[in-house]
Each structure stands twice: as structure tokens, then as C-alpha cells.
Specification:
Elements lengths: L15 E4 L14 E3 L2 H51 L6 H43 L2
Antiparallel strand pairs: 1-2
Helix pairs in contact: 1-2
Length: 140
């Protein structure tokens, strides 16, 4: 029987806690050779899970903020239209300042809606990144 001596290295770094083989032992494919301390990887995994949950909660809050911004935008749009209609029917019914405020509120509500949507997109990309990372780690 011919045997080959092959150098062996772990795929990850860490402290070796236990050896199952000695130098020049015969081994079989898939056989455990040693145990590496998993504590640093467990801590990293817990942190990643915590970060993921934090981002996921932020996505949920951001989605609610988008809905609130959309509602505010609709209300501001309706109010601005009412003010314009009132002013068109009777210029003395409301002041020009009130009309301008309603139009400015409409523009501001639109901007807030777009900002909330952009934040939601950014957070959703972070969740996707975490999900992809988790998938990559579990399929090694």
C-alpha cells in the first residue's frame, strides 16, 4: 500500500481545541482532523443576526413612514386644491399668504414622501445584502 503525506490547513483561523489525528496517521476523506474554537465565529454570527434584525425593524418603520408621508402628501394636495379653488372663486375669501402656505406644504409633503421612499429603498438593499451574505455563509 502506498501512502501520501499531505500538508493540511484549516479554511478558517482560530485556536485548535482538540486533535483527532497525529502526524503520519492514516485518514479517510471527510474525517474530522481537529476542532477549532468556534466562539469568535459564534459572536460574529450573533452580531450579524442582531444587525440584520435591526435593519429589518428599520425597514418596517420606514415602510410605515412612507405610508404616513403618502397620506400627508394626499392631504396637502387636497388642501392646496381647495385653497386654489377658493381663491379662484373669491380672491378675498383667503389671503395670498394662506394660498402660498398650502402650496408650499404640498411641495414639502411631496419631498418628504420621496425622501421616505428613498430611505426605504436603501434599507431594503441592506436587508438584501444581509440575506445574500447569510445565504453565502450557509452554502459553503
Amino acid at each position: 500500500m502506498q501512502a501520501f503525506v499531505v500538508p493540511v490547513a484549516a479554511e478558517v483561523s482560530g485556536t485548535v481545541l482538540k486533535f483527532y489525528v497525529k502526524n503520519n496517521d492514516e485518514v479517510k476523506q471527510g474525517q474530522a482532523l481537529f476542532v477549532i474554537d468556534p466562539s469568535q465565529y459564534q459572536i460574529a454570527l450573533q452580531k450579524s443576526r442582531s444587525d440584520y434584525e435591526s435593519v429589518r425593524r428599520s425597514v418596517n418603520a420606514s415602510a410605515a413612514a412612507v405610508e404616513a408621508a403618502k397620506t400627508n402628501h394626499v392631504m396637502a394636495e387636497q388642501d392646496a386644491r381647495r385653497q386654489v379653488q377658493l381663491y379662484a372663486e373669491d380672491p378675498g375669501a383667503i389671503s395670498v399668504r394662506r394660498l402660498e402656505n398650502a402650496q408650499a406644504t404640498r411641495v414639502q409633503a411631496h419631498s418628504q414622501e420621496k425622501a421616505a421612499e428613498a430611505l426605504l429603498v436603501g434599507l431594503t438593499k441592506q436587508v438584501f445584502k444581509f440575506s445574500k451574505l447569510a445565504f453565502d455563509c450557509t452554502n459553503r
